[in-house]
Write a structure and sequence with these properties.
- One of its GO terms (molecular function) is hydrolase activity.
- It comes from Halomonas mongoliensis.
- Keywords: Hydrolase, Membrane, Transmembrane, Transmembrane helix.
- InterPro entries: Transcription_regulator (IPR053170), YdjM-like (IPR007404).
- With about 350 residues, the chain is an alpha+beta fold.
- The chain has two domains: about 5-170, no CATH class; about 190-355, no CATH class.
- About 45% of the residues lie in helices and about 15% in strands.
- It contains ten helices and nine strands.
- It has helices at about 5-20, 25-35, 50-55, 60-75, 85-105, 135-150, 155-185, 245, 250-260, 320-330; strands at about 195-200, 205-215, 215-225, 235, 265-270, 275-280, 290-300, 300-305, 350.
- The strands form two sheets. A five-stranded antiparallel β-sheet has the order 1-2-3-4-9. A four-stranded antiparallel β-sheet has the order 5-6-7-8.
- The radius of gyration is 23 Å and the shape is globular.
- The two termini are about 35 Å apart.
Length: about 350
């Protein structure tokens, strides 16, 4: 999630745990702790693929953060001014303020390496977009009340309860969408195909479904308010003929670990060379995928891995027309919204008649 939300979550957790004892201090310290794991963004690994796939790594590990929280609790309990508060309460304060950050991140699409240093893929069960005002606002109001009144517990506790209730709603919305999705995929023989169901930007009413089907991938939009209106299924080329060459490189294999199989492959002319580029289809929206990476260049008919991966210029993430049409589509299934409206025609394999 965004930094404001993470700071608000840490502040609310801090107030709920020790607000009665520490007042405003619990909220302020919690905000700092809630932001701490994202400081890994300042680390430059010298390579675009490494920078993306190492983010939300060691700094988001439940092992690391629990250990750090335990250390901070032990150190704090040695301070004379802090001895009136039991060690167990300090431990809950520090550990919860730190670990709720990656746990919330794991509910977004990007993925979070909760079990670092174990070599396991990032955990991602997306039920909220990376920015969702309906989740963040109750937290901000709660901590605002705490800072204004000096009662460090009541406001944050209520804010935390309301934001958690919103996550429960989001989970239920996803279950409803997945239930409606099953017969659509079964009709096309895609029941066992890899799929990703995630909310569209800034809401939990409209959900984007990406299904990988060999050389193709399919995109669908399903809304909580759609009723019995069947979704449109749009099919795109995935460039799978380049997949073997991409995965043969170390960076390609790393991307496959991070995002596979939701990757698209293509060749672009970059700096006067034919370049193999992989795009993460999970992040962004069709036509606005911000995460693309150079993996290899063509030399003498063969693909040679690049020395340093780079991110080519990405399409704008702020297309107002697309956002406005998404907002309208979230509230009603008509008029239909086609993701292919925003995608280069060369990638469209098959569009429904309504598109």
């Amino acid at each position: 999630m965004d930094s404001i939300t993470q700071a608000a979550l840490g502040a609310a957790v801090g107030g709920a745990v020790l607000g009665r004892r520490l007042g405003r201090k619990a909220v302020l310290i919690g905000a700092v702790l809630g932001t701490l794991p994202d400081l890994d963004v300042v680390i430059d690994y010298g390579d675009a693929v490494a920078n993306v796939t190492e983010h939300r790594g060691f700094s988001h590990s439940l092992f690391v953060l629990t250990g750090l929280g335990t250390l901070l609790a032990l150190l704090t309990s040695r301070l004379r001014a802090a001895r009136e508060i039991p060690l167990g309460h300090w431990w809950l304060f520090y550990v919860l303020c730190l670990t709720t950050h990656p746990l919330l991140d794991a509910l977004t699409t990007y993925g979070t390496q909760l079990w670092w240093p174990l070599n396991l893929p990032p955990v991602a069960y997306p039920i909220v977009f990376i920015i969702d005002p309906l989740y963040t606002l109750p937290l901000l109001v709660g901590i605002g009340v705490a800072l204004a009144t000096g009662n460090g517990r009541r406001g944050p506790a209520w804010g935390l309860a309301l934001s958690s209730a919103y996550l429960v709603f989001a989970f239920g919305a996803k279950q409803l969408v997945e239930h409606r999705l099953e017969p659509v995929l079964a009709e096309r023989g895609l029941t066992d195909a890899p799929r990703l169901v995630q909310p569209t930007p800034f809401n939990t009413l409209l959900w984007r479904v990406t299904v990988v089907d060999g050389d193709d991938h399919h995109e669908l939009l399903l809304g909580v308010l759609d009723g019995d209106t069947p979704p449109l299924v749009e099919t795109y080329r995935r460039g799978a003929e380049l997949e073997a060459a991409a995965l043969a490189s170390e960076r390609g294999a790393r991307l496959d670990w991070f995002a596979g199989p939701f990757l698209r492959y293509e060749t672009r002319e970059l700096d006067g060379q034919e370049t193999l580029v992989a795009t993460d289809l999970r992040l962004g929206f069709p036509g606005f995928h911000p995460f693309a990476f150079t993996l290899a260049t063509r030399e003498g008919g063969d693909w040679q891995p690049v020395a340093v991966s780079k991110q080519p210029a990405a399409p704008s993430r702020g297309n107002r027309e697309a956002l406005a049409r998404l907002a309208g589509r979230a509230l009603a299934p008509e008029p239909a919204l086609c993701t292919s409206d925003f995608v280069a025609a060369g990638w469209v394999q098959k569009a429904p008649e309504d598109c």
